[in-house]
């Protein structure tokens, strides 16, 4: 193989490693957020959101093949956003100011 081919292969491997690193970083952030919310006594949202996001990252069956972790990153970001919005709703309800995003009836 010529040097151009090796350069492309190295670039693809570096890009895949960087995307995997972002996915692992988001997973760690999701776990820390859930743990911090539990320690503070705040709701963490449905458990299936957390465990579904973790399983989607770990299991090899994905929308996109596993070397492309963009869909996994999206799922982790949605789970993190869901957990944070649940925290904001709980804090707003605790204050009683009604600024949360949850519908009240």
From TrEMBL:
A Pfam family in this protein? DUF1232
Q: Per its UniProt record, what InterPro entries does this chain match?
A: DUF1232
Report how it sits in the membrane. Answer: Multi-pass membrane protein
Q: This protein's superkingdom? A: Bacteria
Spans through the membrane: 6-28, 40-59
The protein's predominant localisation is: membrane
Keyword check for Nucleotide-binding, yes or no.
no
Which residue numbers delimit the DUF1232 domain? Answer: 47-78
For this UniProt record, the keywords arranged alphabetically read as follows:
Membrane, Transmembrane, Transmembrane helix
- From the Swiss-Prot or TrEMBL record, state where the protein is found: Endomembrane system
Please state what the protein is called: YkvA family protein
Name its species.
Answer: Streptomyces ossamyceticus
């Amino acid at each position: 193989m010529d040097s151009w081919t090796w350069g492309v292969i190295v670039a693809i491997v570096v890009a895949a490693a960087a995307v995997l690193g972002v996915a692992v970083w988001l997973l760690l952030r999701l776990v820390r957020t859930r743990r911090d919310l539990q320690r503070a006594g705040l709701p963490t949202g449905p458990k299936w959101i957390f465990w579904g996001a973790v399983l989607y990252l770990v299991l090899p069956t994905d929308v996109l093949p596993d070397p492309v972790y963009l869909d996994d990153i999206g799922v982790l970001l949605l789970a993190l956003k869901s957990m944070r919005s649940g925290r904001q709703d709980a804090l707003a309800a605790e204050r009683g100011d009604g600024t949360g995003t949850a519908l009240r009836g």
